[in-house]
């Protein structure tokens, strides 16, 4: 089977984690760049990455990368791409994209030029002058950064952070891909017990449960590329069967969530059921001031409210102080807390053992990690 070049955008700060995941899937030539991961493989890798990737935003076929500072250069380079290998004569092929720090600044103009170039190419190959675009949709995505153009085909459709279990959410939800990255950093095993005292819509707990049971995050959703004419249906059938076979049944994992908002607790339980992990997730109404550490080993991963989100800055910092009093150093206890507040450690009462820069949407955050004096070696 032919090999293709792919690229997968990621949340900033998650590129290395996503690259490691793709290598474990069997992808070739994996390399992380700023905000994305590049790799290669056959069509099974394309389907496998869509179904199994916890950390990437979408999977695209990389058609061409080139430099262009004029619309003529853009047009000429695009016409050289063999679109006939991917787009049938009745397929729709919308063009979307972005441009940053480049001479070709106008996204609408770039869209128009790229569309015109594709029509020019396909008109000659199919010997037709008009395209009905009534068939399957093959979305073309372009990005221009520092005058370097990348042209790709979107194979995912909706972003891969949309697992299908969270149709509704509470205020300011954490993106699923970011929650998964936090869980990966904290290390989730089939026998892990995790706590989230600000569970919101349950995203961290659910992503941890999916990870513990090795349940593919995209197993219950569909992808645009399933309708592509050049991808045999058996590819998707094989990869879904492979993903189902990888699921571990009846693990000892448990996730306990708490929130002061009753509707958030109900939403957590609802979403866990939709994700198929309801037996591993419990949630209850509780204030952080009433939180008590369990006697057994535990891992706490949380996204507390903060100034730009649900509380004003003073309230958020008072909350961090309470957390510092509750989350004491103790053997067998680890804490992973994400916050955009530069004064978090000061309010919490002690410096983190390690930090990791992550982005929650466009908000720069730090993942503050407390794991020393827990009976485990620091990583």
Describe the protein:
The protein is of the alpha/beta class and 379 residues long. It has 2 domains: 4-154, VC0802-like (2-Layer Sandwich), CATH 3.30.2130.30; 176-215 and 224-370, 3-Layer(aba) Sandwich (Rossmann fold), CATH 3.40.50. It has helices at 15-25, 43-52, 71-79, 107-126, 176-186, 203-212, 233-246, 262-274, 313-326, 344-348, and strands at 4-9, 28-33, 36-41, 60-67, 95-100, 140-145, 148-154, 193-196, 254-259, 281-285, 298-302, 333-339, 354-360, 363-370. The strands form 2 sheets. A 7-stranded mixed beta sheet has the order 2-3-1-4-7-6-5. Strand 9 (254-259), helix 8 (262-274) and strand 10 (281-285) form a beta-alpha-beta unit. It is elongated. The protein starts with a strand and ends in a 9-residue tail after the last strand.
């Amino acid at each position: 089977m032919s090999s293709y070049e792919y690229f997968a955008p990621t949340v900033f700060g998650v590129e290395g984690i996503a690259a490691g995941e793709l290598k474990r899937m069997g992808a070739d030539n994996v390399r992380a760049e700023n905000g994305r991961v590049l790799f290669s493989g056959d069509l099974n890798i394309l389907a496998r990455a869509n179904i199994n990737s916890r950390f990437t935003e979408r999977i695209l076929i990389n058609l061409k990368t080139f430099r262009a500072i004029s619309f003529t250069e853009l047009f000429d380079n695009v016409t050289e791409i063999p679109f006939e290998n991917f787009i049938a004569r009745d397929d729709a092929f919308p063009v979307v994209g972005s441009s940053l720090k480049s001479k070709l600044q106008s996204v609408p103009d770039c869209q128009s030029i790229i569309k015109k170039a594709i029509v020019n190419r396909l008109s000659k190959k199919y010997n037709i002058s008009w395209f009905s675009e009534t068939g399957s949709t093959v979305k073309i995505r372009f990005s221009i950064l520092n005058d370097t153009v990348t042209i790709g085909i979107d194979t995912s459709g909706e972003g891969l952070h949309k697992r299908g279990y969270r149709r509704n959410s509470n205020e300011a939800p954490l993106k699923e891909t970011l929650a998964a990255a936090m869980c990966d950093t904290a290390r989730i095993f089939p026998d892990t017990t995790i706590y989230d005292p600000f569970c919101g819509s349950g995203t961290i707990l659910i992503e941890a449960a999916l990870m513990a049971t090795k349940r593919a995050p995209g197993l219950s959703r569909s992808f645009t590329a399933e309708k592509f004419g050049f991808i045999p249906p058996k590819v998707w059938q094989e990869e879904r069967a492979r993903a189902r076979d990888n699921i571990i049944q009846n693990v000892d994992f448990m996730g306990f969530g708490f929130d002061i908002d009753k509707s958030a607790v109900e939403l957590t339980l609802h979403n866990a059921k939709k994700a198929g992990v309801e037996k591993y997730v419990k949630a209850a109404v509780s204030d952080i001031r009433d939180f008590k550490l369990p006697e057994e080993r535990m891992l706490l991963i949380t996204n507390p409210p903060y100034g730009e989100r649900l509380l004003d800055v003073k309230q958020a910092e008072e909350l961090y102080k309470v957390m510092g009093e509750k989350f004491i150093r103790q053997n067998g206890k680890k804490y992973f807390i994400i916050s955009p507040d530069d004064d978090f450690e000061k309010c919490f009462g002690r410096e983190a053992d390690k930090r990791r820069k992550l982005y929650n949407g466009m908000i720069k955050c730090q993942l503050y990690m407390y794991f020393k004096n827990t009976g485990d070696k620091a990583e």
